[in-house]
Design brief:
about 40% helix; seven-stranded mixed beta sheet; 15 helices; alpha/beta; about 400 residues; about 15% strand; five-stranded mixed beta sheet; 2 domains; binds pyridoxal-5'-phosphate; globular
Length: about 400
């Protein structure tokens, strides 16, 4: 079977798996820590690398490999390494590709824990990071130093949904011999394929849309074989930030419905954004699908859909925002995203509470800002739940 000509929806369901002699139609799980050999000679050959094959599940596991192959097919990547969480994917990328003394340029509005990892943890080991405005190409350029090795961005960004120009930022990076990583968590390969747009690496928190039902933690790094398949994998098999087979199986099943779920998330989010614009107490709505969004045209050229995250600002401050959140009965009050269940979050007091207040205001994360991860319930029911409080 030549998988090159298949569409994403088909790849998400069919690629990456080799049936066992039992001819199961649903992928098997291999919950085993180690693998046995036919002989002592074979064990020696596997350990020396002379013979390819399973050794130990910290290195490879058949269920995890199926997830890696399937996600690689979707992102159009040569190699994929699955990790225990989204954060360990970002750690594995940095540990695999960078050395003490190297410098990272990252967009400012990245996932809060990624910011803390760059700022507090990597810094202890001699890796420094400069933070720039995702949408301002000249800030990226002026932040470049002699020792800059990596550009890191999330687009669309959380929670204001700004969109970064992956093509232009990658072109700038490559002119200076710098590599580019994109956290593709918000879009998934169904809506955006950063490697095709010029990026060198994609990282994922599989915890979000790839699972899509809020069950398991996991992550992945994707890119070229010589970097991800060798250096990032080399870090993972030694440091042990590996994905377990059960989680890999849950993500595999998640991938099978990814295309249809992402389309439904986009449709519901667009309907919610248009509805919110018309509500009297709503001051502003941020969603790349709205024509009023500053990067709406750019989003149309690099995304095939606008995603499931909508944020909006209501009149008043924290008190009014909390009142609205507490008035909901259907929506989940949590800080996760990418679930079938619609989630309502107050970024300033949760995901962005560690960002200093004046910085928060500067990036638009005001006390009146609310983020929705629009789920797959009926839009009418989500609207009715919010309408009472609005
Ligand atoms: C959640 C998230 C992460 C971290 O993933 P975990 O699986 O929670 O470790 C990284 N980036 C983005 C954009 C996220 O939303």
């Amino acid at each position: 079977m030549n998988y090159d000509d298949l569409d994403l929806a088909t790849l998400a369901i069919r690629s990456g798996y080799t049936q066992t002699p039992e001819m199961e139609n649903s992928e098997a799980i291999f919950p085993t820590s180690s693998f046995a050999y036919e002989s002592a000679e074979q064990a020696a050959a596997r350990f020396s690398g002379e013979e390819l094959g399973n050794v130990y599940s910290r290195f490879t596991n058949p269920t995890v490999r199926t997830f890696e192959h399937r996600l690689a097919a979707l992102e159009g990547a040569e190699s994929c390494v699955a990790t225990s969480s989204g954060m360990s994917a970002i750690l594995a990328l940095c540990m695999g590709m960078l050395e003490a003394g190297d410098h990272i340029v990252a967009s400012r509005s990245i996932f809060g824990t990624t910011f803390v990892m760059f700022e507090n943890i990597l810094k202890k080991f001699g890796l420094t990071t400069s933070f720039v405005d995702l949408t301002n190409l000249s800030e990226w350029e002026s932040a470049i130093q002699e020792n800059t090795k990596l550009f890191f961005m999330e687009t669309p960004a959380n929670p204001m949904t700004e969109v970064g120009d992956i093509r232009a930022i990658s072109e700038l990076a490559h002119k200076h011999g710098i590599e580019v990583a994109v956290d593709n968590c918000f879009c998934t390969p169904i809506l955006q394929r950063p490697l095709e747009l010029g990026a060198d690496y994609v990282v994922h928190s599989a915890t979000k849309y790839l699972d899509g039902q809020g069950r398991c933690l996991g992550g992945a790094v994707l890119g070229k074989k010589e970097t991800v398949g060798e250096k990032v994998y080399g870090f993972l098999r030694t440091a042990g930030v590996s994905m377990g087979p059960f989680n890999a199986w849950v993500f595999l099943k998640g991938l099978e419905t990814l295309e249809i779920r992402m389309k439904a998330h986009c449709e519901n989010a667009m309907a919610m954004a248009n509805w919110l614009v018309a509500q009297p107490n709503v001051k502003a709505v941020h969603y790349p699908g709205l024509e009023s969004h500053p990067q709406h045209e750019l989003a149309k050229t690099q995304q095939s859909g606008f995603g499931g995250i909508v944020s909006f600002e209501i009149e008043g401050g924290r008190e009014e925002a909390f009142k609205l959140i507490n008035s909901t009965q259907l929506l989940s009050i949590t800080a996760n995203l990418g679930d079938t269940k619609t989630i309502i979050t107050h970024p300033a007091s949760t995901t962005h509470s560690r960002v200093p207040a004046e910085r928060r205001d500067a990036i638009g994360v005001t006390e009146g800002l609310i983020r929705l991860s629009v789920g797959l319930e009926s839009v009418k029911d989500i609207q009715n739940d919010l309408a009472k409080g609005l």
